[in-house]
Amino acid sequence: MIKVHVPATSANLCIGYDCLGLALDLYNHFTFEKSDALEITGCDPQFQNEDNLVVVAFKRVCQYLKVDFPSFHLHIDAQIPVSSGLGSSASCLVAGIAGANAWFEANLDLQSMVTLATQLEGHPDNVAPAILGQASISYFYKDKVISTIVSCHGWHGLVMMPDYQVNTKKARKVIPSSIEHDKACLQVAHALTFMQALQNKDEDKLLASCMDYLHEPYRRQLIKEYDDIHQYCFERNFPMWISGSGPTMMAISIKEENIRNLYLWMKENYPNIQCHFVTIDQKGVSVDYE
Ligand SMILES: Nc1ncnc2c1ncn2[C@@H]1O[C@H](COP(=O)(O)OP(=O)(O)O)[C@@H](O)[C@H]1O
Ligand SMILES: N[C@@H](CCOP(=O)(O)O)C(=O)O
Asked: Distances from the Cα of 146 to the Cαs of 25, 68, 224, in angstroms?
């Protein structure tokens, strides 16, 4: 039996729409076992068919390796909520790719896995950290994805998950196709500063660069609690952002006390929003055998 463990992600990191992301210590677990026919268990019945993203990605690897698609029993044990902005779709694609890689002992290198996953997901910002761990910067160059891992640890995080879903495809439609030149300049400065601050544990610079012009100004309208939570965090000098395409929001601080106080404030003011303490996953997707 092959077991694949994939971390959740917080894609975009506010100022890195479609290129930056962070791996979190919240996991989906997938098992692949030989079987006479394809069988899928452990997920909503609507996903128990050949359109399941794990199966789609597994098939993509078969095509890439020029081998036949085998039949197996796939079991999913999910901690990552569906359509919440924590990379549930990325986790399925990464599991299918890592599962097939293990099944065929193909020894695909990590960057090829990122490229295959990105071809299916459409953008690399969630699949790259799910595969590589920590934080990463990724983009397409010719027909391959280039990723740079930004090592980071020591941050305390809180993911705040409203009790409604936002479908990623729909959340992409609210974003305009262009922005002004001066805003684009600031965006570049913010993104570069943010990644260095994340690595250097520099909370002041992280806060000063956590201001986006590409997607948050448009998507905040889809998340009714955003403005209030944003104000709470920024008044206390630590950053928060919309995780992936939302509606989950994420705050981090180098001071654990800030995150504990935010948790208590959330419990009091937004009891319907599920909150979960997180730290940064260090190693990305992992596979073991039984
Ligand atoms: N546990 C799961 N089991 C099966 N399919 C899943 C699971 N989690 C996510 N998916 C797939 O991912 C899709 C959600 O993708 P998306 O809206 O992009 O959400 P997210 O922001 O969480 O990635 C679902 O419609 C389904 O196809
Ligand atoms: N850049 C994408 C990221 C989507 O991440 P997800 O976790 O919501 O799947 C976007 O913002 O649409």
From this structure: 24, 29, 35
